[in-house]
Amino acid sequence: MPVNKDALKRYRVIDRLLSDPNHDYTTGQILQYVERETDSNVGIRMIQKDIRALEDEFGKEMARNRGRRGTVRYMDQSTPLFYQELNPDEEELLREVLRTLGQFEGLDNFTWFDLLSRKLRFKEERKKCPIISFGVNDLLQFSTNLLGKLFTAISRRKTICIRYQPYGKNKKEYELYPHQLRQYNNRWFLLATPVGNEVEPYREDLICNFALDRMEQDFEYLEDIPYIDTPVDLEARFEEIVGVTLYEDKDVECIYFAVSPASTNYVRSKMIHRTQMEAEGDELQEYLEKYPQFSGWAVFSIECRPNPELYSLLSSYGGNLVVLEPSVVRDEMVKRACSIAENYDLILGV
């Protein structure tokens, strides 16, 4: 049935109230809002008919008689019929999201950012202290455009050629199928598969990491080389490691380590790996009997592949964390600790 202009005005008001997730309204309260916002004189029966029309003609399912007051609202409040202006809480939340995305401003995938920022008068509030703050690698401040450009290459499924300088080596060109951007320890990495050549043939299961701060700003699209997706489950890959480095020749190890009382609660609340478990009961007693020098310490275990990031994280606890088993991991920790001690001996002249 056709909707006249007056009914449309009422529908807009009623639709806003019924889709408000923060409040439930009675038909009497809805009537007050309608009369105030449309300057019309309608009765409670008209409001009831309007609600019925929204239900029958527009397919909106209602939840009625909520609570003692007999309120009514949409069963699904996430899909109002009409555009809703942002309330102050929603506007501030959106501002925070835009501040977080601000590093991408000016890139082709984010041309909407500038327009939306102006609509929210975001530009004038640049100096406002953010509510949410993320750690940032200062070396990447100059290369945020690179992050966005790589995002574009991945989203468009483009093969690329980058210029990259590995540690201790000369800069080299790499032809890559880029798959994902990943952040670890305030540093961004590109995960990609090399295209391959006569010397190093293409391997579909090979995933290499390239730190963005060691990469030149500009890279080339290789339009003549069709993009190939990786069959590797990247999320599953990173479940086995700490950080981004995965050594295929390293097996998953069950690593046990003792933690001093000073760091126990911290390790409990900030797990070293998602598989972390704390030994209790007989298992704890077994390890404390085996290593009595750590009586009073907690014992934890994780299951992952050893890599440099894991050793660095374990070493960051200093003397408050001691790896017990397996010996291959413990020996590497001892080696690192001895190297540190030797360097300090040089300073002290020991």
Radius of gyration: 30 Å
Provide the structure class: alpha+beta
Helix content: 25-40%
- Which overall shape is indicated by the principal axes computed on the Cα atoms? extended
Largest sheet descriptor: 5 strands, antiparallel
> Which sequence of strands runs across the widest sheet?
6-5-4-3-7
Total strand segments: 11
The parts where pLDDT drops under 50 for at least 5 residues are none
Which percent range describes the beta-strand content? 15-25%
| Topology pattern, helix = H, strand = E | HHHEEHHHEEEEEHEHEHEHEH
Terminal-residue CA separation:
94 Å
Fold blueprint:
Blueprint lengths: L4 H14 L8 H12 L5 H13 L5 E5 L4 E4 L13 H14 L9 H9 L24 H12 L4 E5 L7 E13 L2 E8 L13 E4 L8 E2 L12 H5 L14 E7 L1 H9 L7 E2 L2 H10 L7 E7 L3 H8 L5 E5 L1 H22 L2
Antiparallel strand pairs: 1-2, 3-4, 3-7, 4-5, 5-6, 8-10, 8-11, 9-10
Condensed summary:
It is built from eleven helices and eleven strands. With 350 residues, the protein is an alpha+beta fold.
Structure explained in plain terms:
This protein has 350 residues and is an alpha+beta fold. Helices cover 37% and strands 18% of the residues. The chain has helices spanning 5-18, 27-38, 44-56, 88-101, 111-119, 144-155, 234-238, 261-269, 281-290, 308-315, 327-348; strands at 62-66, 71-74, 160-164, 172-184, 187-194, 208-211, 220-221, 253-259, 277-278, 298-304, 321-325. The N and C termini lie far apart (94 Å). The mean pLDDT is 84.
Kindly list the characteristics that best describe this protein:
350 residues; alpha+beta; 4-stranded antiparallel beta sheet; 18% strand
